[in-house]
Design brief:
about 550 residues, about 75% helix
Length: about 550
């Protein structure tokens, strides 16, 4: 590949106007970037199944949870409480503030029904649930959270140029409604406090990041246009939302059944507390792993599809989506399982440990023991840094774009940003934080909605009592999970845009010229000099390419 493919004669034969001169300079700059970044920008890998071991492990735990639910889940289901709960709820009339209004003649009968219902639901130390009511409330909460998330995505697409601002404003509005409505309906509960805390969080974060919003907005606008051109990936995300809601219910069904089975054992059949804790921890890990896998299937599919859109203006949309889904579900499924299990814990540990990173001070002499401890700390942090380079959220983008194994994908993404000089830009988590806050607000609002449903219909869920807390938690978890899956569309599309902009800006300029100019302007405003090539020596780039070919 030539560094400047146009010949001097071709360039000089055309009249150079002010506008054409600027465009030509921009085009040459983009060519220089692509030539310089060629060794690290990634290339299509041979089609084969990667990280197969983790795909097998994931399928094994998935099948195990299904078997455990079928074998032990019935032990946690309260099958007769529905009829009694219906009788009780039909006798209850709730006023606008949640107080019970009953005539004196009905008080004794109502107390008898409540006592009978409580006696039937209690079973020693075991936990029982009215699964009918849980399913009913979950369906309501799922529809509400799905509708709210879809509405948010629609507004993002319509208001693409102001999407970050609108997301923050929308989060502030929802948290305000959450808090103030809670004051009106449940003044003595935890709802107003959580709503007002969310409001303060949203307002504070908005004030902190407002200056960096143009940069993120330009990336999101490009990403949303790519999604709009490939609307089929949104359908896939909704499908994953539905599957995740079903998995939430099955996980509760299985976990409660296993818990009751353990508690009801007798004699030598009983497990130790350590084994019980291990089993319950395994159930939590299984739920987390499955949630991450479902969400990252969406991310890899989106990355593959948006990558095709980036490099071509004339392509088969259905073929691009099917290609991405095939990669996510077949050839790179093991990579998704590997990353889903380890990426978040590794990044979390690294962030927590960063404040304890050892710092050598050349001026002060250290004792022998101190020197040894410092060497051990440096080795531990070096290993942790190496892990974080392999396990990061950019790896999913490389998996979707090129089909790398997960660890190779993470390392290549890290090398790309290091060579481009964008390490600090890659670490900018503005969009991730905004969408996470958005998901939290949707989850809390869904929890409040579920609490309203429980109050109006007098639902009973578990033998533990506290239906208000139970309904709020059910709604919050479902809202958070479903909104996270849908909004992962945006994060994965933006990650793809940044990766491709770092390594292949010329393709973007050629196929989407107007968007390319807008992105360049926004990046220069927030990160001056990030697109300049002054520090990139062509001879150095040629030498680097030759060394890579020779290796």
């Amino acid at each position: 590949e030539m560094f400047i493919p146009q010949s001097v004669d071709q360039m000089m034969s055309k009249p150079i106007t002010g506008s054409a001169k600027g465009t030509r300079r921009q085009h040459m700059r983009q060519q220089s970037v692509e030539f310089f970044m060629a060794p690290v920008k990634g290339k299509e890998q041979r089609t084969r199944c990667r990280d197969l071991l983790f795909a097998i492990l994931f399928v094994a735990q998935f099948v195990t949870i299904i078997w455990a639910g079928m074998s032990y889940g019935a032990a946690g289901v309260y099958t007769t409480s529905h009829s009694h709960a219906s009788d009780v709820s039909s006798d209850l009339m709730y006023s606008s503030n949640g107080d019970v209004q009953n005539s004196p003649d009905d008080t004794e009968d109502l107390a008898s029904k409540l006592g009978h219902l409580a006696d039937e639901m209690k079973s020693g130390e075991s936990l029982t649930i009215d699964y009918f009511n849980v399913l009913r409330l979950s369906a309501y909460a799922g529809l509400f959270a799905g509708g709210l998330s879809a509405l948010a995505l629609i507004f993002m697409t319509i208001l693409a140029e102001r999407v970050i601002q609108m997301s923050l404003v929308f989060s502030i509005a929802l948290s305000f409604i959450w808090g103030t409505t809670g004051i009106g309906f449940f003044p003595q509960s935890f709802v107003p406090i959580t709503g007002l805390f969310a409001l303060l969080l949203c307002v504070g974060y908005t004030l902190i990041v407002w200056d960096r919003i143009p940069f993120a907005s330009a990336n999101v606008k490009t990403a949303l246009i790519g999604l709009k051109e490939n609307i089929g990936v949104v359908i896939i995300a909704f499908l994953m939302m539905g599957l995740m809601q079903c998995w939430c219910l099955w996980s509760v069904y299985t976990s409660v059944g296993i818990y009751n089975t353990i508690k009801q054992c007798e004699g030598d059949e009983c497990m130790s507390k350590g084994m019980t804790s291990l089993i319950l921890t395994g159930l939590i890990v299984s739920f987390y792993w499955t949630f991450e896998v479902f969400m990252n299937i969406v991310q890899v599919t989106v990355s593959s599809t948006v990558g095709v859109w980036w490099a071509s203006s004339n392509y088969s949309k259905s073929h691009a989506i099917c290609r991405g889904l095939n990669r996510a579900l077949v050839f790179s499924f093991g990579s998704i399982c590997l990353g889903s299990l380890f990426t978040t814990p590794i990044q979390l540990v690294r962030q927590v440990a960063e404040s304890f990173r050892p710092q050598r001070n050349e001026e002060n002499a250290l004792l022998c023991l101190q020197e040894c401890l410092l060497c051990v700390q440096e080795c531990v942090f070096a290993y942790m840094d190496d892990l974080s380079q392999s396990f990061n959220h950019w790896a999913y983008t490389y998996v979707g774009l090129y089909g790398y194994g997960f660890r190779d994908a993470g390392k290549n993404a890290t090398l790309l940003f290091e060579k481009r000089g964008w390490t600090k830009i890659a670490a900018d988590s503005l969009l991730i934080n905004v969408l996470f806050i958005f998901s939290l607000i949707i989850g809390g609002t869904t929890g409040f909605f579920a609490l309203v449903i429980e109050t109006r219909e007098g639902l009973v869920f578990t033998s533990l009592g506290s239906p208000e807390v139970t309904s709020f938690l059910i709604g919050t978890v479902i809202g958070l999970v479903m909104s996270s899956v849908l909004l992962s569309l945006v994060t994965s599309a933006v990650s793809t845009v940044i990766i491709r902009f770092a390594g292949s800006p010329r393709e973007f300029e050629f196929h989407h010229g107007r968007l390319s100019k807008e992105m360049c302007a926004a990046w220069r405003e927030v990160w001056p000099g990030c697109l300049d090539m002054n520090d990139m020596n062509p001879l150095q780039a040629i030498s680097f390419n030759n060394s890579r070919r020779g290796g």
